[in-house]
Amino acid sequence: MSAHELTSFLQNIHPFSNISQSELDNFSQNLDVIYYKKNEVIQKDGDSPIALYFIVKGLVQEKSEEEVISLFSTNEFFDPISIIENHSKNSFTAIEETICYSLPKDIFKKTLYKNKDLESYFFQSISQKLNSYIANEKNKDLANIMIAKVKDAKVHRAVFASYDTTIFDAATIIKKEKVPTLLLKDSDGEVFIITDSDFRQKVILNRMEYDDKVSKISTGNLICVNENDFLFNAQLTMTKHGIKRVVVKDDNDVIVGILDQMSLSSFFATHTFSVSNEIANAETLEELKHASFSIIKIVRSLNAKGVRIGFISKLINQLNRKIIDKAILLTAPKKLLGNYCFLVMGSEGRGEQVIKTDQDNALIIRDDCTISKDDLDKYTKELTEIIVDFGFPRCEGNIMVSNPYWTRTVSEFKDLIYSWITKKSGDDFMNLAIFYDALCASGDVELIKELKAYIFKVCSDSQMFYTNFAKVIMSFDIPLGIFDGFVYDKNHKDEIDIKKGGIFILVQSIRSLSLEHKLYRSNTLRRIIDLEEKGVLDSEFAAELSEAFNFLNTIKLNSHLEQLDSGHEVDNFISPKNLSRMDKDLLKDSFKIINKLKKKLEYRYKLNYA
C-alpha cells in the first residue's frame, strides 16, 4: 500500500483523523504489516505491549480470563490503554485470519504526548469522550446544523418605511430595494411587517386602492430570534408558531434582517416546512395522513445531516402534535371543542419518540362539558382509529383515549390520581409515571397543569412513597459484566435491549427525582438541567447523563432506521458486534454512567431494602 493510501486509511479512524499531516506521514512511514493465523495470540495478559494495532482485515477478540470483553474488526485499533500503562490487562487473539498494521509504541507515545488533542482524547472523562466523539461525527460538514447560526443563512435586509406609507409607495420600495418584506414602525415604536404575498392576497384580491395606507394589510406581534442563535432553533420556532419568517435581531436588540422559510429550506435541504405547511393547510384527514407519513423522510434527512437526536425528537414531536391537533379540530364534536386537553404520554409526552413505535394518550374533559357519554365514547374510538391510520401503532397496554380509563373529567382524573398515589401498587405507580410525563398536544394546557399540581399536592413527602415509585429500576440490569463485557439477552443471540438495559433506567431515575422535587417538565434532558440547578445533580454528572442519554438514543434511532430499511419489525435490540470499536466503547461508557445513576438512587431511596 502506498504512503498516500496508508495516510487515507488512518484519516478514516477517529481520533487519528484529527492529527496533523506531518504526524500522519510519520505514522504511515513506521507502519508494518503483520499477518496472524486463526486462533493466534497477538498479545497476552500481563505482556508489555510493543505496538498499537490497526486491523486491515479479520477479527480480534479481547478476553479477560474466559470472558469475552470486546471484538475488533476492520478499521478498528487496539490497545492504546495497554501502551499508556505499559501493561496488558487482557489477552488479544485473532479468531480468524487477520492482517494488521502495527505502529511501534514509542512512535505512538511520542506523538500522543506532543498532541494535546490526541492526549486529551485518551485521558478525558466519559462525558467529554462522548461529546467529542459526537461532535466529530456531526461536524464533518461545514454547513452542519448544529454549528450553523442564524447569521450563516441568507438573512434579508431589514428595510423600514413609515407607518403611513401608501400601498403604492410600499410596493415601489420593495421593488427598488429588492427585498421580499418591508417593515413599518408606528409612532409608539411598534414594528409591523408587509410581505410580497400580502400585496397579492390582500391588495389585489380585495381590490384595495393603491393610495390606501399599507398599514391596513400589515401584521404585528412579530416573532424574533437572535442572529447568533442556532439556525435549527429558528426552524423550530417557525414550526412551533406556524409562520414563514422571523425577525432577526443582534445582541443589542436591534433588528438586522428577516429570515424566511425559503432561506432555511435551501440551507438545510429538508422539506420540514413543506410538511408543516401541509399540516396547517390540510382540510381533510387524508391530507393529514399524507403529512404524517412524510415525517419519516425528515427524520432520515436530519439524521443523515448529523443533527443531534435531541433536536430531531423535538422537531418531530412538534410536527406530530400539530397533526393530532389538526385532526381533532377537523373531527371533534362541537360540544367537546374548547372543553378538552388531549395528552400524549410516555416517550411522545417527553418529546423523545422519533420513530412511531406506539401511542400512549389520554383525554381530559372539563367538569362542565355537556357532551354525552355515548357521544364521547363514540368519538374517542374514532379518534384512536384516526391516529392508528396516521401510522401510530396501537398501545399494547391499551393506554389510549378509546379506553374509558384514560378519558375522564378533571374531577375524575383527580380521584384516579389519588388512588394511584395512595394504593401504591405496581400498576398504580406505572400509571402515575406515564401520566406525569404527559404533554398537551391539543386543547387547553391549563387542564394538565392543574392535574400535575394536584399530583404534587397529594404526593406524600414520605421516603417510602418515592422508594416505591423508583424501585422499578431494580427490575432491570445494566447489560455489562464484571469485566466490562456485554451481557446479551437470553432470547436474542448476541443482542442487548438498549431501552430496558439503559434508556428506561435513566428515564425512570430522573423521573423519580423530578417528581420528588415537583418539576413540571416532561423532557428528560430538561429535567436533568432543572435537577442540576436545584443541586440534586452536580454539573459534571449532569453533563455525563445528558451525553449518555443522547448517545443511546442515537444508537437506537440508527438501529430503528436500519430495521425499517430491511423490512424488519422495529424493536430495541441491538447487536454490539455490528458497532464500530468506538461505538462499542462509548456504549459501555454510557452504561457505566447509567449504572452510577442507578446506584445513586439505590442509596437515596434505600432500594435494596424495598
Structural write-up:
With 610 residues, the protein is α+β, with helices and mostly antiparallel strands. Helix content is 49%, strand content 15%. It has 23 helices and 21 strands. The strands form six sheets. Strands 1-8-3-6 form a four-stranded antiparallel sheet. β13 (224-226), α9 and β14 form a beta-alpha-beta unit. α21 (524-533) packs antiparallel against α22. The protein starts with a helix and ends in a 5-residue tail after the last helix.
What key phrases describe this protein's structure?
single chain, 610 residues, alpha+beta, four-stranded antiparallel beta sheet, 49% helix, 15% strand, globular
Count all strands and give the number. Answer: 21
N-to-C CA distance = 62 Å
Uncertain parts: 137-145
The secondary structure category is: alpha+beta
Rounded to an integer in angstroms, the radius of gyration calculated over CA atoms is: 29 Å
The major beta sheet can be summarized as: 4 strands, antiparallel
* Arithmetic mean pLDDT: 87
Strand order of the largest sheet: 1-8-3-6
> Helicity level, as a percent range?
40-55%
Strand content: 5-15%
Which shape, going by the Cα principal axes? globular
Topology:
Blueprint: H1 3-11, H2 21-29, E1 32-36, E2 41-43, E3 51-57, E4 60-64, E5 67-72, E6 77-78, H3 80-85, E7 91-94, E8 98-104, H4 105-114, H5 116-123, H6 126-138, E9 156-157, E10 160-162, H7 167-177, E11 181-185, E12 191-195, H8 196-204, E13 224-226, H9 231-241, E14 245-249, E15 255-260, H10 261-268, H11 272-281, H12 285-304, H13 309-331, E16 340-344, H14 346-349, E17 361-365, H15 373-389, E18 407-409, H16 410-423, H17 426-436, E19 439-443, H18 445-458, H19 463-470, E20 496-497, H20 498-516, H21 524-533, H22 539-565, E21 573-574, H23 581-605
Parallel strand pairs: 10-11, 13-14, 17-18
Antiparallel strand pairs: 1-8, 2-7, 3-6, 3-8, 4-5, 4-7, 9-15, 11-12, 14-15, 16-17, 16-19, 20-21
